[in-house]
Amino acid sequence: MGKTDSSGNLGHRRVLKIAIPVVVANATAPILGAVDTGVVGQIGLAAPIGAVGIGAIILGALYWMFGFQRMGTTGLTSQAQGAGDTPEVVAMLTRALIIGALAGGAILALQGPLFWAAFKLSPASPEVEGMARDYMQIRVFSAPAAIGLYAVTGWLIALERTRAVLVLQLWMNGLNITLDLWFVLGLDWGVSGVAFATFLAEWSGLALGLWMCRAAFKGPAWRDWARIFQRARLIEIMAVNRDIMLRSLLLQAMFVSFLFLGADFGDATLAANQVLIQFLHIVAYASDGFAISAETLIGQALGARNRRLLRQSAILTSFWGVVSVSVLSLVFALFGRDIIDLMATAPEVRTEAYSYLKYMIFAPLVGIASWMLDGIFIGATRSRDMRNMMAISFVVYVVCVVLLVPGLGNHGLWISLLISYVVRAVTLGMRYPALEAAANPKGS
Fold first, then answer.
1. How far apart are CA 244 and CA 252, in angstroms?
2. Which of 418, 317, 249 is nearest to 22 (CA)?
3. Burial code of 6-21, b = ≥16 C-beta within 10 A, e = fewer?
4. What is the full DSSP assignment across 224-285?
5. Contact criterion met (CB below 8 Å) for 359 and 276
6. Per-residue pLDDT tens over the stretch 42-84
7. Coil, helix or strand for 306?
8. What is the per-residue pLDDT for 443?
C-alpha cells in the first residue's frame, strides 16, 4: 500500500505532490458534462438536452447525499495510517465499501418514490420527463459503483495516492466520452445511450479503483469481520458521516437559496449570478487540491500524535491554498470581463454581471480560510465542530439576507454570502487550538 512518513519530513514538494493531481482531476469534470450535452444536442431537439440535464442533476443530488463517504474515509484512514495501524487502514476500506453497497442498494430499492418526489419538486414537460426517466432508470443501476467510488477515492487520498485518483478520473471520463460518441452518434441510442455510457464508465471505474487498492486484499485484514464490525468503530464512522452530511446539507441549502433569491431580481440578474457562480466553481477546483492535502497530512499527523507536524501541515497546505486563490483573484481582476463575455452573449446579462464582478475578485481571498479549515477539520475528523460552525454560518447568512437584501438587492445577497465565509472561518479558527491539543507534543 505504500508507506508515508509521519516523522516530520514535510515540505512544499510533498504538499504539491498530493494537491496537483487533484486539481487536474477536478479540471476534467466539467468536460464530461459538456460532452454529454453536446452529443445529445446533435439529435437536433431540445427535449433530449433537457432530459439528460434533469436526470443527471437528480441522480447527482442523490449520490451527493453520500459524499460524506469520501471525506470521512479520508480522515479516518489517514489517522490510522499516521498511527501505523495497517490492519485498521485496510479495514476502513472494507467498511467504506460496505456502506457504499448498502447506500447504492437503498437508492435502487427506493428509486420509484425518489424519482416521483424529484419530479414533483422540479416538474418538466411530459416529453422531457419521459426521456429523463428512461435515462435515470438505466443509470441508477450504477448507484453502488458511484457511491463505492467515493470510498475508493477517499482511501487512496488518505494514502497520498492522488496520482491514482487522477488516472481513475481520466479513465472514467475518457471511457464515458468515447461511449457517448459511439452509442449516441454511432448507434443512435439517444438519451439511453448517454445513460449506458455513464453506467459502464462508473462500474469500470470501480473495478479499476479496486485494482488500484489490490494490495489491501492480499492479507487477511480486509475480511477481519470482528475488527470491521467493531461497535466503537462503527459508532465513530456513523457520527462522522452524519455530521458531514448535515454540514453539507446546510451548505447546499445556502447556495440553492442564493440562486432562488437571485431570481426575484429578474432574469438578467439570475443569469448573471449563474455566470458568476461558475467563478466560484473555478476557485473550488483550484483550492480543493490543497484542502485535500490538508485532510491527508493533518489526519496522518494526528494519528501519529505529532503536534509539530500537524501545525506544519496546516501552515504549508494553507500557504499554497492562499497562493492559488490569490492568482485567481488577480486573473478575475484583470480578465473577469473577458471571462464573462465568453460565458454570456446577452448584453443585459453581461452588464449585470460586470456590476457584481468585484465580489468574485474578493470571494477567493475571503473564502480560502474557511475552505482550508474545512480540509483541516475533515482530516482530524472533527465533524461535530464542522457541523456546528456551519449551522452558525447559515444562521448568520439568513440574518444578513433579511437585513441587507431589502435595501441593497442583489448586492446584499452577495455580501451575505461572503459574510458567511468569514463567520465559518472565524468560528472554525476558534476551535483549531482544541484540534491541535488533541495531538501529543511528540517531536516538538
1. 12
2. 317
3. beeebeeebbbebbbb
4. -HHHHT-HHHHHHHHHHHHHHHHHHHHHHHHHHHHHHHHGGG-HHHHHHHHHHHHHHHHHHH
5. yes
6. 777 777 887 888 888 889 888 888 988 999 999 999 999 999 9
7. strand
8. 46
Residues with Cβ within 8 Å of residue 311, at least 6 apart in sequence: 436
Considering all CA atoms of the chain, what is the largest pairwise distance in Å, rounded to the nearest integer? 66
Instruction: Report, as an integer, the average pLDDT of 304-328.
Output: 95
What cell was used for 40?
Answer: 445529445
Predicted model pTM: 0.91
What tens digit of pLDDT does each residue of 208-241 get?
999 999 999 999 999 999 999 999 999 999 999 9
What's the pLDDT at 441?
60
| Residue ranges of domains in the chain | 9-229, 241-444
Give the three-class secondary structure for 170. Answer: helix
CA 279 vs CA 18, 23, 88, 223, 335: distances in Å = 24, 15, 40, 45, 12
Provide the 10 A C-beta neighbour count for residue 330: 12
Average pLDDT, the chain: 90
Residue 344: half-sphere exposure toward Cβ, Cα within 13 Å: 23
CA distance 104 to 227: 23
SS3 393: helix
What is the DSSP secondary-structure string of 329-383?
HHHHHHHHHHHHHHH---HHHHHHHHHHHHHHHHHHHHHHHHHHHHHHHHHTT-H
Cα torsion for 295, 298, 303, 306, to the nearest 10°?
170
What the block records as the C-alpha cell of 230 is 467493531
| pLDDT digits 0-9 by tens, 251-305 | 988 987 887 888 788 878 888 887 888 788 888 888 999 999 999 999 999 999 9
Q: How many other C-beta atoms are found inside a 10 Å radius of the C-beta of residue 281? A: 12
* pLDDT band with cut points at 50, 70 and 90 for residue 444: very low
Would you state the cell numbers that stand for residue 419, as one nine-digit string?
459574510
Instruction: Name which of 19-33, 148-162, 222-236, 317-331 the model is least confident about.
Output: 19-33
Grid cell listed for 83:
498511527
Yes or no: say if 76 and 92 are a contact pair by the CB < 8 Å rule: yes
Least confident of 137-146, 326-335, 347-356: 347-356
CA atoms within 13 A of residue 403's CA, in its CB half-sphere: 10
CB-based contact 275:349 (threshold 8 Å): yes
Q: Please state, in angstroms and rounded to a whole number, the distance separating the CA atoms of residues 138 and 237.
A: 31
In whole angstroms, give the CA distance from residue 36 to residue 49.
Answer: 9
